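Hey, resending since the last one bounced:
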Amino acid sequence: MTATMEKWNAVMGSLAHVRKVLRFFKSIAVLRGAMTLLRQHSHSFYKDGVVLVDLMSRLFLAAYFALDHVSYASKFKLIHLAPAQETQLGYLTEGSWLCEIVCSLLLALLKLRRLSGQQTSNVAQHTMAVNAQLRSVAKNALDLPIAMHFLNLTGKCPHGHFGTLGVISSLISLWEIWPVVFSAKSSPMAVKSKQQ
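The structure tokens again:
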């Protein structure tokens, strides 16, 4: 049983490292999105709560990705950090993620409030927008205790409980991207490339 658990932990660790590799340079894309948002609302972003929180969320996410890259490099001895520095880096990384989650959760709630006051003739599109924000609320509410756990803010709760929350959160993310993947596969261009 112990050997099986060790193998399972090794597999999970490898998958976690693969995920980190797939995030390389993602912080640049997030920062570019933040700059685009800032240019679009350069004269009013500080007056619009939705835009301001959205900008903060993107900046915290970019910081999380950048710090996570440094942590990854340290684990594989690409750079040398003292133990105390690694601990500080870990807190900064997870702290950035926690701040991003809080901002994203607040952003979804603000958008829901804005949507609730809108009058629209396209009920289906309005319902889809509301459901998307509800899923965002659920996902970030699930991620919040996970980030707090990584910062040792959840007491002695078993680690496995937070793993379960992470699985549910990931399933919500898959639900979000699945229609995009499915529509891309069934698009005329994809069908044409298969025929060729």
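The CA atoms of residues 171 and 177 lie 10 Å apart.

Sorry for the duplicate.
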